[in-house]
Amino acid sequence: GLPGLVVTVAAQGEDSQRALFAISASSDDTGDMQFVGGGGALATVRSAADGGYRLRGVRPGQPLLVSASGGSWISAALEPVTVSEGRTSTLPDLRLSEGGTLELHIVAADDSAVGAVFISGQRSLDASGREASGGDENECHAMAQGGGATLSGLAPGTWRLKFHGMAGNGVEIDARDEVVTAGETRAVTITVR
User: In sequence order, what are the residues at sequence separation of 6 or more whose Cβ sits closer than 8 angstroms to the Cβ of residue 68?
Assistant: First the structure.
């Protein structure tokens, strides 16, 4: 199993940007998550040392979306699951594939400070050079503060990165393609005009 992954549970059909469930997650690496409220749509817990996790007190009869992400692993999700009242259910394993990481370093040509930069990426080609299909695993987003950002859990292939200066800071960076390889971390230096 993979310890320390973030396991997320959302009610199917709910907006995952709504308020979080009120939860208490154990801090002893048992992977337990206890739902103690239900006013929101999303809750998270880290997987235990053996990669396992527990969801307790979930609303019975409501389809739930369970996913996991973390580190350089590509996010994975189960088909919607429903639990029965008063029963313990064993969910199928979440199977994650190893992805790659890009460590971006944004520097100014004149050594001046680089303001906040929003980065969006889309995988255009898979590892074998075929056009990548749509889906969350083919998109990434990050905010570079102080010139640095890390994009992790990227599926192997060619990623088209776009950069957007924030708060009128005048940052202009051309879009660029970067190749991501499973299991590798690449440092990329980007110079701002």
Answer: 2, 5, 6, 7, 8, 47, 75, 76, 77, 94, 96
Would strands 100-108 and 185-192 be described as parallel, antiparallel, or unpaired?
Answer: parallel
Secondary structure (3-state) at 103: strand
Q: What is the Cα–Cα distance from 62 to 88, expressed in whole angstroms?
A: 15
* Residue 174 · residue 119 · CB < 8 Å: no
Among residues 71, 56, 90, the alpha carbon closest in space to that of 153 is found at 71
- Pairing between β-strand 73-77 and β-strand 64-70 as defined by DSSP bridges: antiparallel
Query: Model-level pTM greater than 0.85?
Result: no
**pLDDT, one tens digit for every residue, the chain (193 residues):** 788 888 887 777 654 433 222 222 223 344 443 333 334 446 777 888 888 888 777 778 888 888 888 888 998 888 988 888 888 888 888 888 999 999 999 988 887 778 888 999 999 999 999 999 877 778 999 999 888 999 999 999 999 999 988 766 677 889 999 999 999 999 999 988 7
